[in-house]
Every structure is written in C-alpha cells, then in structure tokens.
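Final report, Chapter 2: Outcomes

The project's central promise was a pipeline that accepts a single protein chain and returns its three-dimensional structure in a standardized token representation, suitable for archiving and comparison. That pipeline is now operational. To close this chapter, we reproduce one record exactly as it appears in the project archive, with the input sequence first and the structure output second.
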Amino acid sequence: MVKTYIINVKKLEDDAVFEKAVESVSVYRKEKIALLKHRGDKNRSLGAALALNTALSEYGLCERKMEYALERYGKPFFPDHPDLHFSLSHSGDYAMCSLGEFRSGNDIECIRGMSESRARHLAGRFFAEEENAWIDRAGNYQEWEERLFRIWTMKESFLKVTGLGMSLSLKDFAVIVEDDESIRLRHAVNERTYYMKEYVLPGAYQEKDGYRLSVCSESPEFAPAVEIVAL
C-alpha cells in the first residue's frame, strides 16, 4: 500500500524550531536546503524530509541515515532499499510524502487565483484534448479552475511516477476523469498500468481549502486518507 503523509510547515518559520529540525535530517537534505534562497522554500524542503522520516519510521528506518541516489531524470531513490519508493512535494503551507513498495509520484498545489485568460492559455498549451473537454464541462469558472488544478496535480504525479519528469510532454498523455469520478490514464510511456488517488486535506486542516493533492502509483492500493505529521 502507498501511504501519504502531510505536514504543516508554518512552525518552521521560527528560527529555533527550524535549526533543531534541520539537524535531524540527512546530509543530502541539508545540502538541498542550503542551496535554496528563500526561507519559505527551505521550510517546505525541510518539511518534506520530516514527512519522509515519519513514513520511513514505519519500516524501522530513519531519513537521516538513508543514502540517496538519482535516476537518469533526477528522481531520487534509496539504493540500499530498492523495495521502497517515495515521492515528495510541497506547496504553500504544506509538504507531503508518499511511500510504499511500489513506485509512486505525488503532487500538492495551492489553487492560486490567476487571470482567466492566463488559466485558459495554460490549459490549451499543456493539456490533452480529453482533459480540456472535461474541464470545459464545468458549470462556472470557479469549478473550471478547480478542475484545472485537479488535472495539473494528477499530471505532475504521473510525471513523477514514471521518473521521466518534464522530459515527457504534458500533451503526450491524458488524465481522464469519468462521469462517476473514476480516473484512468491514457499513455504510451510503457506497458504498465498506473492508478490515481486524489486526497483532501485532513480534518485538522479543513480551514485551509484551495489545495489539491494527488498520488499516482503502479499499485491500486492507496491509504484511504493522508496522515498528519506532527511538528
């Protein structure tokens, strides 16, 4: 099963909390954090590592002690634990981690207001015909924008699970949302079948609407809800 963990990184704005937390993560993650210019980005990167550590603890492992390596297109993995696969993402106040025994990719996005003209330009430029047709069936612009971000996070999740990242054109595959809200993927990347799961923020975070969370995996078995990581 692929489990997903989420953490609110607001507390990391406190210097003392940040410094204590950063000392608990791996050299690999410290180096990534050090390269980031903005404090918000550093907090989110650190939060992702903390979420990963919580996920690894269920396997008796610790993020600080893990060795990392990169696939051809930059997807990180654990060479000493090839049976474990993870994906990290962050946006706004949140960072998330998905971990399991099958390849996965995840994405979280904050639905940020953008002009309708720009939003429609992005959809037309990057989305497949089936995706745009589904988005355009929305009853109003608010629903249209929400559908756009749903597709965006699911497409990002697929890019991550394949390990191809942006080397794969966003128009070369499609996320198809059926009338019953079931989701399937049209792609020619390989002969594998991929599955998609969308999440909402858990109850403790319900005051924070406007976020979309998606996880894509080679396994259809997903945890029913995301788990909160305490900070």
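Archive annotation: The chain has a mean pLDDT of 92.
This record, like all others produced under the grant, will remain available to the consortium after the project formally closes.
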